[in-house]
Amino acid sequence: MENQSSKAVVVAGGVWQVPLIKFLKSKGHFVIVVDPFSNSEGVKICNQHIKCDVKDVDTIYNFLKNEKIQFITTDQSDISVNTVAKLNELLGLTGNPLKITNLFVNKLLMREHAQSFNVPCPMFKRISEVQELYDFIEIAKLPIIIKPADSQSSRGIFKIETLTDLESKFINSLEFSICKEVIAEQFIDGVEITAEGFCSNHKHITLCTSRKKHFRTGIASELKYPADIPQEILTQVKRYNDVFVESTKLNFGITHAEYIIDLKTKNIFLIEIACRGGGSLISSDIIKWVSGVDVYEMFYQNLMGNETNVKNLFILNKSAILYFFEFPDGVVKSIDGLDLFIEDSRVLDIKMFFNKGDLLKKASDDRSRQGYFIGLGNNPDEIDDLVEFVKSNLKITYE
């Protein structure tokens, strides 16, 4: 039973916050969720709902200032990270200060900080008006990438290969930026990997990595653990990852980073790094399977004021896949085969974000993907076999 004298606040109540909310409730906390929507999945299971934009710090503070709150947190939500930092500072609670979290949230500050500690990044420029974008293209040459300086779910990201519609793409990208700035960066053609880690007492460890594939620019199609890249490159990625996090003086937290590797030159480039867990159940479930390390338990202990000796953790190297579906366009007549996977221990989770009668379209960002499954195995061969099994038994028919 939840203890009302032990209140925990979770900022943002979307579907990927559900594992954190359930975890905190299992620890006996009375969980208050801040979210603008009454029908969000996290709101449905919380003890109390504050209906509010997650960026509206003043309104949230007025709700909480007279409550006895033990801690405020978030996990798989970029836009909530700075809100949590501000609220913790206002209420004097355990957490990370805004000047540190903003190094992870704002991609421009992230790039500048990385450069100062010799963590390589693509050539980039801060863009606030379209003429600056033309100027950058003169130097960097096409193709380039533009993205909001501070957003999430791959919204507003464009690969620019010609000058056609450049201004409209810039305006679209700018609309998703909270700070109203866009980052333009050199396009790096290479292999993308993710790195999942944990920080405590300003020390960081990289727990596992995945090789990431895409449907289109910025929209992931799969993350396969562990990353199948040469060990010497992987070792260097982990070193850069640890250097970046430790140099920020982050107090504690789950981290999720993305790097591009040019396998011909072996050059490594930081794309972005966040002081929150990866979405789609990466932080809550996948890391624990692949590495054997329970990051939620460590995260909780640090929220409660304890520390973790991350450098002494024993880490496994098992296999997993986060696989996103993309079916042909059309109106769905039926979805068949899902029942085969319900009792399959190899399938951690499988979900479709559409129903019979829905019109399927290709995803325009991470939030509009059609569905996913998470597969677990002891080695890459088991994962390959599982992917083929799922793909061959899942059938979508159209009207």
Secondary-structure map:
Elements: E1 3-11, H1 18-26, E2 29-35, H2 41-45, E3 48-51, H3 57-64, E4 69-73, H4 78-91, H5 98-105, H6 107-116, E5 124-127, H7 130-140, E6 144-148, E7 158-160, H8 166-175, E8 182-186, E9 191-200, E10 203-216, E11 219-225, H9 231-248, E12 252-262, E13 267-274, H10 282-291, H11 295-303, E14 319-324, E15 330-336, E16 347-352, E17 359-360, E18 371-377, H12 380-393, E19 395-398
Parallel strand pairs: 1-2, 1-4, 2-3
Antiparallel strand pairs: 5-8, 6-7, 6-8, 9-10, 9-12, 10-11, 11-14, 12-13, 14-18, 15-17, 15-19, 16-18
Helix pairs in contact: 4-5, 5-6
Would you kindly provide a brief summary of this structure?
By secondary structure, this protein is an alpha+beta fold.
Q: State the strand order across the main sheet.
A: 13-12-9-10-11-14-18-16
As a percent range, the share of helical residues equals 25-40%
Q: What is the arithmetic mean of pLDDT?
A: 95
Low-confidence stretches: none
Coarse structural class:
alpha+beta
How far the N terminus sits from the C terminus, by CA atoms, comes to 48 Å
Number of helices: 12
Shape: globular
Biggest sheet features: 8 strands, antiparallel
In percent, how much strand structure appears in the residues? 25-35%
The count of strands amounts to: 19
Q: Could you characterize the architecture of this molecule?
A:
This protein is of the alpha+beta class and 399 residues long. It is 32% helix and 31% strand. It contains twelve helices and 19 strands. It has an eight-stranded antiparallel sheet, sandwiched between helices. Helix 5 packs across helix 6 (107-116). The longest helix has 18 residues, at 231-248. The mean pLDDT is 95.
